[in-house]
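Input chain follows. Return structure tokens only.
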Amino acid sequence: MMGTTRWSAFAAAVLAFAFGTEFAHSQGVTRTSISIGQSGPLSGANKEFGDDIRNGALAYFNKVNAAGGINGRKLELITLDDANDAKRSGENGRILIEERGVLALFGYASATLSLPALPFAEKNKVPFVGPLTGAEPMRKFNRNVYNIRASYADELEKIVEFYASTGMKKFSVLHYDDAVGKENLAAVEVALSKRGLKPVSVSAVTRNQTDLGDAVSGAVRATPDVIIATTLYRATADFVKQARKAGSGAQIASTSFVGASALATELGALGTGVVVAQVVPPYSKSSIEVVKEYQAAIEKQLGKKDFSFTSLESYIGAKVLVEGIRRAGANPTRESLLKTLDSVQNYDTGGYVVNFSPSNHNGSRFVELTAISKAGRFAY
């Protein structure tokens, strides 16, 4: 029979191992896997946008897994469908964190979908990496949130600067009638006010709204030189089609939020000349190291050369997340990942630099304008 001291030591070791294993598993790390959580629109009107985000992340995770994973552990992306519904995305965040026990949240499709999940990330000290949004509510410093890309305010300033420099003065705005949409409107107004201008019309629509008649007629009556859209591709495409049918010849410009490739597909020939701001390099420019790497990974993932700005942004975000996990040591936890993400300073992903610090979690301000060509591609 073991002595009391030996038995106590043995029992303590067993309990420590058991609870240590349970603790690690509750944070998305097992002996063989690392779980990352994601909620996105995998059904509904914005399914293509959600699919692009998921595919970009999977392309990089699969590349890492094929090379042996991280310290022998394979990356697992758990994606739950929210159909672009904020209530569902919030509940998905709770499930991913509190029931599925993921190490981190990654790649939510917008601020509207991200914000309902954020309280669960804060409560459980979970890193929330690479939301595909430039909205201010997600860019205010938060210990848990790490943004890979530029803000919508950066994009909208670039758009207004470009058109104002050509002498255009009449700007209309299309935005969602919610907190994020109003933030975008305010950003346009700030950019215009710098140049002594104001919007000639403002049209607000709800998410998943199908009848855009009033919004279109209000913009057309104002005869703007430029219409700036800050909505997703379905609403933007429907708006453009109806505005063109109503006789508007205004220039159309959009933030990257739209989902550029999906917008080009939806508009077809009507898309020629539509300007879209981008927050990552051209997905066709293989002379850029990270783009070349992305192209090969996406083609392997999908079995075809189906490239997009959205999946490239997600791919880069996944690469930054993995760099943070690698730096977090042999047995990463949520807390250690938060600390190591702060150390990702001047990290070159291959022609796209991301820079975090303990007081700055907005990794980049890169913005470039593109225009849809007659072939549905993008010119710079």
